[in-house]
Amino acid sequence: MRNIIVTLLLPLVFITTMLQGCGFVDIDTPGQIDGKKMYADEQGFEDVLTGIYATLAKPNLYGRQLSFGFVDEIAQLYYNDHEAALTTLTKTYDLQYRDTDVRKQIDRIWESAFFTVYTINDLLQQAEGKHFAHLDTYKGEALALRAMLHFDMLRLFAPNYSRPHELSIPYVTKTSTQPSPRLTVDECYQHILADLNKADSLLALSSAKRTPAEMYVSRYAIKALKARVYIWAGNKSEAAKYAKEVTEGPYRMVKEEKVLQLFMGYAATSECVWVLNAPKAYLDVRQAFYPARSTATCNMVRNNYKRLFSTSTFTPTNNDYRFQAYFTQTNWGRPIVAFTKLYDKNYEETQEWQAGRIPGINMIRLPEMYYILAEALYDTDRNASLDALNTVITARGLQPLSFSEIATPERFRQVLVDEIKKEYWGEGQIFFTYKRFEMPMEGLNSKVFEPNDATYILPLPQSEENKD
Fold it and tell me: Which SUPFAM superfamilies does the protein's record reference (predicted)?
């Protein structure tokens, strides 16, 4: 069985940089972390966890590549014709995963994820035997973050749950220089769910009031993650159970025209279950989608977006506000369509974030729970399934669907996938949706990417691939 060795240097550099101002760095031994001092009180645990959240919001993880960047680029949403020669971006569109430049992006995603896991594991190990008022909160959040990171690495680097006994990725739970063995797909799911269950139990015991609540992993965020994991594992009853608990929580779909102000690089107000505070992501958003002129690194919206949104059917009473909120016609020497869902033009002009709003990356939003409910209930309660789907559709300004429009499983799946694409463009969920349903992807220039391992399983990093 192959093993994976997680490099330990970068987490130490990260912790050192983050905590120098807190007095946790050993002055007598430059570069060494004084672990006893750093974790001597509750504040130390909170500071490290704050640093972990900040790391998740960096470009190699959810601050770009796992949200509006790499995983959306390989989902065939964009094109770039700035240069005649192949570029890293155009090779990414073409799923040339083993190309040197594309591979570097993949390697950095993997390494950043497991560096963060290492830091989480260090926090959890340091917490053993300690008793502080809110330590259960920090442990619970850390476990949930560990589960989420492993789940997303599993979704990228391993087969679907339909192949449960195949080797996938390691599930790293210790800070050790010893190699971590790769586990089967099913074994990884069991570890992910175990961490989420333990995280939920710890937060249930906690008296801490984290504010604003949506900036931290809450019990509702854990339930949403469980719903996401269970639907991937094909356990529809458990997926529906947890998705329903979230929809019955304090979150609400905004109404129609308010969608126009819902995103723009901010937490999605009443729909947001969890957001990462990421004010610097704005720079990458602008570079990727709305530079002053066309560049070799910007994503331009493909012409088929109007077909997806069925714009020819729009009327005054059937008008998808997402279409208006997400895309802008502009001119870079020729007419193009820019993706502006995550772009705040007002901030560009004033350099001030809107008062009362959190600039960041939406990690979990309410519509996903309704989509999971619709899918999970389709075979057993067609009325409830349709109601869940229409909850999102009508909130976005469209007329409700009828039973005839989802009469067969095939038609329902296509409606569901199209809805997810319309709702989650720019949020890193579309590639995963294609993969889970094992659907072909329509590439550029009439190319079709078939639903196979070459399309949907990223290669392990070069530094790990040949280790035994």
Answer: TPR-like
What is the tally of structural domains in the chain?
1
Q: At what angle do helices 366-377 and 236-247 cross, to 10 degrees?
A: 140
**Is residue 16, in this structure, part of any structural domain at all?**
no
Write the pLDDT tens digit of every residue in 386-414.
Answer: 999 999 999 999 999 999 999 999 999 99
Cβ pair 259, 244 in contact under 8 A = no
Q: What domain range includes position 372? A: 41-439
Res 155: pLDDT: 98
Q: What is the pLDDT of residues 36-78, one digit of tens each?
A: 778 989 999 999 999 999 999 999 999 999 999 999 999 999 9
**Phi/psi zone of residue 76: left (φ > 0), alpha (ψ -120 to 50 degrees), beta?**
left
Cβ-based burial of 227 (10 A; exposed 0-12, middle 13-18, buried ≥19): buried
Whether residue 23 contacts residue 39, with contact meaning beta carbons closer than 8 Å, is answered with no
Q: Give domain status of residue 33, yes or no.
A: no
Q: Do the domain assignments include residue 15?
A: no
> Has residue 341 got a pLDDT over 80?
yes
Tell me, what CATH number does 235's domain have? 1.25.40.390
Q: Residue 362 is which amino acid? A: N
In angstroms, the CA 280 to CA 8 distance is 26
Is residue 97 in a domain? yes
Give residue-wise pLDDT tens across range 173-203.
Answer: 999 878 899 999 999 999 999 999 999 999 9
Note the pTM of the prediction, 2 decimals: 0.93
